[in-house]
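Field: COMPLEX_INPUT
Field: COMPONENT_COUNT = two
Field: RESIDUE_TOTAL = 417
Field: MODE = joint
Values follow.
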Amino acid sequence: MDSSDWELEELEAAFQEKVGAEKRIEPKDWMPDKYRQTLIRQMSQHAHSEVVGMLPEGNWLTRAPSLKRKTILMAKIQDEGGHGLYLYSATETLGISRDEMFEQLHSGKAKYSSIFNYPTLNWADIGAIGWLVDGAAITNQIALCRCSYGPYARAMIRICKEESFHQRQGYEIMMTMAQGTEEQREMAQDALNRWWWPTLMMFGPNDANSANSAQSMKWKIKRQSNDDLRQKFVDATVPQAEFLNLRIPDDKLKWNEERKHYDFGEIDWEEFKAVVKGNGLCNRERLQARVEAHDGGKWVRDAALAYARKKESRKAKAA
Amino acid sequence: MSKETTNELPLYEVFIRSKNGLDHKHVGSLHAADAEMALTAARDVYTRRSEGVSIWVVKSTDIVASSPEDRGSFYEPSDDKLYRHPTFFDLPDEVGHM
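Field: COMPLEX_OUTPUT
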């Protein structure tokens, strides 16, 4: 073993000790290359998910049932855009540029949460997304508020403060529809039927099949396992569905008195894999919309930059 | 810090005073064509729920930062000056709180 190997090992040991002592890692601190790469992957995918997440909801902006619902939905979508920006900004502290991240998203190299590859077919879907999808996201993100990487943890804290509005507005839509006409109740049930399983998939593969989990837990990037978080979400959500008088589409769902948790059925992992691979109902449409929005905005960015340069050079001339 | 930023709008760091009486605090960063647009964007991104009464934006490249590797030697001059702390001085209890 030469001296550089030895040095690296010492740095890694010191890093692990720091993480173990719950000290946060900041951008300029030394970190193992793999830690940096893992964070770049996870944080940029998280950012992409926020941004692509605006698309299924945008589908209902022009068809929201009232002006009140429309303004609320606009505010929620604007929040998602903001969350994407917090996260891109935090990821850039690791040394990757914004353009590189966009390039990875647009080329399909980087993934985003596969939940956004499902279509929003009726208005109740907007309720179900807020209630279930944002609910699952909150469960994940609360755990990430204690992540070892400072900028990620801080972005998560800011995001969690805002997510609660998203979930409550969604649940309120569900409540209104579940108490409405028979047809509205059916729409609410239909939305729950379609969104329940994809929401459970948001927590990722079972712990036994989650390749990167152990290392991420050791580095305290992840604080709770996929299955633990999924269980937490199910336990919290079942009573909420009961209150709505809607049925969760799982015959195996049952309270387990011994475990003090709900038992639930197995996720269709084949569907999960297919959607991750790009064969979900809306994968192509989402990516295309994202690329078009970015390319379509290029002239605005160019013009703003040209204007800024012109102002700068005028100022220099006048001086 | 970014590798390839030639096509990107410049990066600005954003600092927000949440209410009068408190310091400005770093909240994150954003890309904008110029300082004026950075301010407007900072308002939209970081103060959607009245989180601020004052915003500073600074070009990231204009920030000069100390580096963590020099932590030892950089702060060393203060390490041996324990007399700068009030606990350095032993006063009798009769003096009371000082």
